[in-house]
Amino acid sequence: MGGRVDLDSWQKLSGSAQRVEQQHLKTMFENDAQRFEKFSRQIPGVLFDFSKQRIDDQTFSEMMQLAKESDIALWREKMFSGEKINITEDRAVLHTALRNRANTPIYVDGVNVTEQVNAELEKLQAFSNRVRSGEWQGYTGKAVKDVVAIGVGGSNLGPQMVTDALAAYADDTLNVHYVSNVDGVQIASVLKGLDAETTLFVVSSKTFTTSETMTNAKTAVEWFLNAANDRAAIAKHFVAVSTNLEKTRAFGISDDNVFTMWDWVGGRFSLWSAIGLPIALYVGFDKFVEVLEGAFEIDEHFKTANNEDNIPLLMALLSVWNTSFLGYQAQAILPYDQALHMLPAYLQQGEMESNGKHVTFAGEQVNYTTVPIIWGMTGINGQHAFYQCLHQGNVIVPADFIASIEPQNKVGQHHDILLSNFFAQTEAMMAGVDAQQVREDLTAKGKSDAEIDKLIPHKIHQGNRPTSSFILDKVDAKAVGRLIALYEHKIFCQGIILDVCSFDQWGVELGKGLASNIEAELTQEGVTNPHDSSTAGLIAYYKQKRTN
Ligand code: F6P
C-alpha cells in the first residue's frame, strides 16, 4: 500500500486516535483553562479557533511531526517556484502567480510569467473600465447594461461566488448573470428580458471544449443574432477567456476579444486570472485587485509562518486528522454570512476535485480516506434543515463555522442575533447536554419522573462534535481573497500530507466521454452504442416518450 501509513507520525497519530476517542471535548476544556489561547491563531483580518477540534497537546505535536515528515516546506517551495508538480499533466501549479503583488519574477519554461500576468491584468483593467464607463458600446451604440457570464466548474464557481459575496459593494452600473448548467431552463431564464443591444457575453472556458459551455455559448449567439441579424456585431457583444485561441477563433471570437490564461492555472484555482473578469466588471477592477491583495497576504502567511502558526497547514492537518484518523467522512462548511452562501459549492470543487483521489503521486492505491465529502449551506438555514443530524445523528460531521465581526449591512440587531447562533451552535456541538442536565431542565418544567425517564434518551446531546470557527473582520474584497486562499493552501497541504496529486482531474473524463457518445445517440438518427440493460432501457424510454 502506498501513502503515508509507514511514517512514524502517522503511526503515532493512529495511536492517538484511540486515546482521543475516549476523551470528551467538554472535559478537555474543563481541564485546560488555556485551551482557547493554545489552539487559536490570529492574523490580520482573521481569527481561527480550532480549540473545539478533538485534539490534545500530544496530537498537536504529532500533527506537526506529520507536516515535517510530509515535506510540506519542500513542496510549498516547489509550488511557488513553478516546478511542474502537476505530474500527470506535466504542468506547474501557479495560481499564486496570478496575485503575486510583489511582482517577483516567476519562471515557467524560461518565461517570466509575472510579466504575462501583469499584461493580462492591464488588459482586464482597460476592458472593464471601458465597459463600465460606457465607452465600450454595442452594435447600436448603447452602453452595456447586462453581462452574461457563461462557464462551468472553475470557470463559473469562483466568479459567481465572489460576485455574490461582494454584491453589497457593487454599484448599479452593470448586472451580472451566470449560465453554467446546460439545462436550457437556465439560459432561457437568464436571457428572458435582456436586450441584445446592451448585453455583453463573457464565455469562459480554459479548454474552450467543455460541451455544456459551448452549447450555452452557441445558444447565446443564436439569441443575439435573432436581434442583431449581423454576425459582424458579435465582436461587440462576445468576449472569451481561454487558453485555446484556436478554438476561440473557430467559435468566431477575434483574438482582441480573448483574455488568456495559462495551463499552469488549474480551473478550480482560476478566479484570480481573467476568469475573474465578471468580478471586475461587476464591482470594478480596483475591488478585483483587492481580492488579489487579500489572497497575496495569505500566500505570504503560508510561505513565512512556522508550522505551529500556519493556518492553512493547521486546517489541512485537522481535516486529515478528522477524515483519515477519526474516520469522519464528511466536512460541513457553514457560513454565518449570507454573502458567503456559495462558499460550500465553491469548496466542493476546490476540495473534492483536488483530493478526491485514491492513488498516491507514485500511483499506488491508498488505504485511507482522502478527501471528506464537502457540503454545507448558510448556517442559520442549516439549523432549520440538518442540524438535528449534526447534534443527535450517529454520523459525526466536523464543521467549519465562518462569521464576521462587522456585517456588510447593519440592520437593527440582526448581526448580534446571527452571531449568537454562530457561538451557540459550536458550543452545543462541543459540550452537548447530558442526562443529569436534561433531568434538571425537565424537572424545572414540572415534568413527572415517568415523563422525564421517557424523554431523557431522546433529549441527550452527546456533544464532542468537532468544529473550527473563523471570524473575519468583515466580508469585504480583501477578506474574500484571504478566505479563499486559506482554503486553497489547505487543499494543497492536505494533498501533500495524503500523498495524492491535487492538481489533475482525470476522474471527470470518463463521464464526459460517455455523455458525448450518448449525445450522438439522442441527437442523430441511427446511432447506437452498446450499453448495460439499465442504461439502454433508460435511453429507450426517454427516446420513446420524448416529444421532439
Ligand atoms: O469539472 C471538470 C473541469 O475540467 C473543471 O476542472 C473545470 O473547472 C471545468 O471542467 C470547466 O473547464 P473549462 O474551463 O475548460 O470549460
What report would you give on this structure?
This protein is an alpha/beta fold. The chain has 3 domains: 8-69 and 305-407 and 414-431 and 461-498, 3-Layer(aba) Sandwich (Rossmann fold); 110-288, Rossmann fold, CATH 3.40.50.10490; 506-545, Phosphoglucose isomerase, C-terminal domain (Orthogonal Bundle). Helices cover 48% and strands 11% of the residues. The strands form 3 sheets. A 6-stranded mixed sheet has the order 1-2-13-12-10-11, sandwiched between helices. Helix 12 runs parallel beside helix 20. The radius of gyration is 25 Å and the shape is globular. The N and C termini lie far apart (52 Å). Bound molecules: 6-O-phosphono-beta-D-fructofuranose. Residues 152-155, 205-207, 210, 213, 267-268, 353, 505, 508 line the site of 6-O-phosphono-beta-D-fructofuranose (F6P). The site of 6-O-phosphono-beta-D-fructofuranose has 14 residues, from loops.
Provide a quick synopsis of the model:
With 548 residues, the chain is an alpha/beta fold.
Number of domains: 3
Q: Describe the biggest sheet?
A: 6 strands, mixed
CATH class annotation of the largest domain: Alpha Beta
Please report the number of helical segments: 22
Strand order of the largest sheet: 1-2-13-12-10-11
Structural class: alpha/beta
The CATH topology of the largest domain comes to Rossmann fold
What do we call the CATH homologous superfamily of the largest domain?
A: Glucose-6-phosphate isomerase like protein, domain 1
Shape by Cα distribution: globular
Total count of strands: 13
Q: What ligands does this structure carry?
A: 6-O-phosphono-beta-D-fructofuranose
Proportion in helices: 40-55%
CATH architecture of the largest domain, by name, is: 3-Layer(aba) Sandwich
Radius of gyration: 25 Å
How far do the termini sit from each other?
Answer: 52 Å
